[in-house]
Amino acid sequence: MQQCPRCGGSAEPDPEHSGVMRCMSCWEVWALPADRSCPGYRPTLNAALRRLEESRDLNR
């Protein structure tokens, strides 16, 4: 079990929706972070740097 970020109560997975948690005290609902398809942040960083370089050329 996990803790609710709102009230600190106990939370359980929602049986109707995968990847969603529900607090048993205040009924707060939140989604769990999605799994990354590739490990690490390097592919994301490389894509962001390429996009930055492309926009830099457009602004000149």
| SS class | alpha+beta
Share of residues in helices: 25-40%
Biggest beta-sheet profile: 4 strands, antiparallel
Q: How many extended strands? A: 4
Give the helices and strands as they follow along the chain: EEEEH
Give me the number of helical elements. 1
The strands making up the biggest β-sheet line up spatially as 1-2-3-4
**What is the global morphology?**
elongated
Provide the residue-averaged pLDDT: 78
Ends apart, CA distance between termini: 53 Å
**Low-pLDDT ranges:** none
Q: Could you describe the 3D structure shown?
A:
- With 60 residues, the protein is α+β, with helices and mostly antiparallel strands.
- It is 30% helix and 22% strand.
- It has one helix and four strands, in the order ββββα.
- The protein has a four-stranded antiparallel sheet, with no helix packed on it.
- The longest helix has 18 residues, at 42-59.
- The model has no long low-confidence stretch (mean pLDDT 78).
Task: Kindly summarize this structure in a few lines.
By secondary structure, this protein is α+β, with helices and mostly antiparallel strands. The chain is 30% helix and 22% strand.
